[in-house]
Write a structure and sequence with these properties.
InterPro entries: OMP/PagP_B-barrel. This is Outer membrane protein beta-barrel domain-containing protein. Residues 1-21 form the signal peptide. The protein is mainly beta. The chain has a single domain (21-166), classed as Porin (Beta Barrel). Helix content is 11%, strand content 62%. Strands 1-2-3-4-5-6-7-8 form an eight-stranded antiparallel barrel. The N and C termini lie far apart (36 Å).
């Protein structure tokens, strides 16, 4: 079964090799939401992706980066490294797009679990860059952090404003 999945991945990426490709690099700043809002004041991050245009208006690729949550009160800083598949659809005739990154996020702090990574985005397409608003969410079963009165779930998110630059 593993060999069949691996063969499918190679076939998919081989098909992308004929399509237009490009690297994008950028950053984001955000306001923590969910459980993160109780332990973090704000978040900063770096975004990187390699995208292939598979058909007019549709790009797919791989995405990674780093999101750092700055702790507030007595809470320590923590961060996540996402590893995700990425998709982006550009509307014909409009400088607007929608996108989604879906994969896993690796925690950089002991006591916080790694988990599912979901990052929907809407944005404005420029010739050499893109501006976006996104909702980043990292969810897992449980964390080891203790809140003042109860255990905290590991469901961390942020509403982010970001910019990515195209480096073809």
């Amino acid at each position: 079964m593993k060999k069949l999945i691996l063969l499918g991945v190679f076939a998919l990426f081989g098909n992308f090799a004929n399509a237009q490709a490009g690297f994008k690099l950028g950053g984001h700043i955000g306001a923590p939401v969910g459980d993160a809002s109780e332990v973090a004041a704000f978040t900063l991050g770096v975004d990187a992706a390699y995208m292939w245009t598979v058909m007019k208006g549709l790009d797919v690729g791989i995405a990674s980066g780093y999101s750092h949550f700055f702790g507030k009160d007595r809470w320590d800083d923590f961060g996540f490294i996402p590893l995700a598949a990425s998709g982006k659809y550009r509307f014909n005739g409009l400088p607007l797009f929608v996108g989604l990154d879906l994969g896993g996020a690796i925690s950089t702090k002991d006591g916080i679990n790694s988990g599912l990574y979901v990052y929907p985005k809407v944005g404005f397409q420029l010739p050499k860059a893109e501006l976006y608003l996104g909702y980043q969410n990292i969810g897992s079963e449980r964390g080891d952090w203790e809140r003042r009165d109860r255990r905290i779930d590991s469901n961390f998110g942020a509403i982010n404003l970001g910019v990515n630059f195209f480096l073809k």
